[in-house]
Amino acid sequence: VENDAGQLVRFESELGLDKAYVNVLTPQEDEWVLVGTDGGALIQVAMKDGIMRERYLPAAVTQPLTGLRIQSIIKDENENLWIGAEGHGCLVYDPLANTIVPLRHRSFDDGSLITDVVRCVMQDKRGDMWLGFYPSGVCYASKQNTGFDKLIPDPANPDALPHPSVTSIIEAEAGRFWLGTDGGGIVQWNREEKAFRFLNSAV
To answer: For the whole model, what pTM was predicted?
Structure first.
């Protein structure tokens, strides 16, 4: 980590972050950064006055994460933390109520997650939540919707999602979304036209 003097320093943490497999870094307010690891550690760190500091989160959010592989962390417009965990779906932490709600795949519920292997989480300009999965596609839900709609691959449907493993999602202009895939390059989804296309590089 770079300190105020422009020097690189190694962060020695009581939680062993210097030896941890760090999967995700998410910037927060006042230079604090959320760190998620392969072993389920979730901690806030910051460089203050040239010294690396750490700030602990409530046990209500950290205890359910123990041993999980944290893949994605975002804070939504209501200050809730959405934590994507490989094999355990998505956990939504409400700091006001100090509660955590697990979102999981349920075979009997069409509105649940496609699978529990979450690779990325994103909130768009409308406030809709998007989750990318390995190897099953994308789920998204509006604020008014209690369940998730799905974008999934279907070999029999040429208009379906062309690649199943989605590792990153960003929102572009005019209702378009870019989906980064694990082995299929970049796929663009047009929400208004409900159409996909590959973004091919000339390089």
So the answer is: 0.87
